[in-house]
Write a structure and sequence with these properties.
alpha+beta; 13 helices; six-stranded mixed barrel; two-stranded antiparallel ribbon
């Protein structure tokens, strides 16, 4: 008996018991759909966080001073630009402020920085201009608004040229930042940016505690980190009061965490497929019992053991395969619905779909083997006597 005939017999056996076959497939459908939905969510989260980190700027090195009265001066930091491998430096003074326009008030974050922030942090304006060196030299009271702050104060109108108050001090709006969306640690759009020298007065803070440095090339990042780490250790004599980190380390950490999350979610969903496989085995065992006499007749007229084995094994694989296909369609639909309702990024790859379907077929083979083997081993005389 050729393979096509065996497949036809297997399909006929499934069609003869439609409701039973559908219920058997249900476990596989749920398992495959769960794998696709959960893994796609995890991969979407990874892609979103990775994009946010990369959007902070290319070849980025970050310095932060913490738990120490020691600070860095603006001139001291800018002298680092003479070091090899450094393209740009953006010192930052940050804090929380209240902004006001007319009778509208809004609490937001403030960053005081220089003109190189635009290049180093990959932050540009969609309207107006960025901070210029002259703004720092003359402590100009100019401000750039994030899109969220602009919406809160000006709705859909243009803020350029308007005057707002920051902690009670008048500032002229000279730029509207390009919208970046949510980041891993908050929104990039919920902030205002002013010259660093002006921020020292507004925040009543002297000295710099955060610095963003752009390395000239990806290959220079490690050299820059080593240089600055050595400089800060000589200055502070304590490695616990400062941190020098880079984009590669951040991405590596994120990929490790999200990779573990993806495996965990995939494993949880895989349990559903395992349960579906047990369901296939149970139904196939019942089918073997019900068709014992049929098996005996087929053996009596010349069917070989391998023909019986192939028929029942293919029947199990067809059930799991059809369940896998339906599960893929259900998983894709549910993923799309979740993505639109929850406004989260979904990343469904062909690799995930292929693995889910392949695992579903494997489940059919593994759990269909025992019932198929049991059917193939039946003694034809005993099978013919079975009532």
């Amino acid at each position: 008996m050729n393979l096509i005939q065996v497949i036809k017999l297997a399909v006929a056996g499934i069609r003869a018991n439609k409701m039973r076959s559908i219920l058997t497939m249900l476990g596989v459908i749920i398992g495959v759909a769960a794998v696709i939905v959960l893994v796609s969510l995890a991969q979407g989260a990874t892609k979103s966080v990775t994009g946010s980190i990369q959007g902070l700027g290319s070849n980025l090195v970050t310095i932060s001073m913490r738990n120490t009265p020691i600070t860095l001066t603006y001139n001291e930091v800018m002298e680092w630009k003479n070091r090899p491998g450094i393209r740009g430096i953006a010192p930052v003074i940050s804090g929380n402020v209240t902004v006001k326009y007319g009778n509208k008030k809004y609490d937001t974050g403030l960053e005081g920085t220089n003109s190189e922030y635009e290049q180093v942090r990959n932050t540009h304006v969609q309207e107006g201009r960025f901070i210029m060196p002259i703004d720092l030299s003359f402590r100009q009271k100019v401000v750039l608004l994030g899109t969220e702050v602009s919406r809160q104060l000006f709705a859909q109108g243009s803020p350029i040229g308007e005057t707002i108050k920051i902690n009670g001090i008048n500032f002229k709006v000279v730029g509207l930042l390009v919208e970046k969306g949510a980041a891993a640690f908050g929104s990039n759009d919920d902030k205002v940016v002013i010259p660093l020298t002006t921020a020292e007065r507004v925040m009543n803070s002297k000295g710099v505690r955060s610095v963003y440095i752009q390395a000239a090339t990806p290959g220079d990042v490690d050299t820059v980190v080593a240089q600055l780490d050595n400089y800060l250790y000589r200055k502070t004599k304590n490695t616990d009061v400062y941190r020098v980190s880079n984009q590669v380390e951040m991405l590596s950490t994120v990929n490790q965490v999200t990779g573990m999350l993806t495996l965990m979610l995939g494993g949880i969903a895989g349990i559903s497929l395992f349960v579906g496989g047990i369901g296939i085995m149970n139904i196939m065992l019942v089918t073997v019992t019900e068709r014992t006499r049929e098996i005996g007749i087929r053996k009596a007229i010349g069917a070989k053991r391998r023909d019986i084995l192939r028929q029942f094994l293919i029947e199990a694989v067809v059930v799991s395969g059809i369940g896998g296909i339906i599960g893929i369609l259900v998983g894709a639909l549910v993923s799309r619905i979740i993505g639109s309702l929850m406004a989260v990024e979904i990343s469904m790859s062909l690799k995930v779909v292929g693995m889910a379907f392949g695992f579903a077929v494997l489940v059919g083979i593994v759990f269909g083997m025992y019932p198929a083997n049991k059917a193939a081993k039946l003694n034809p005389i005993e099978a013919l006597r079975f009532e």
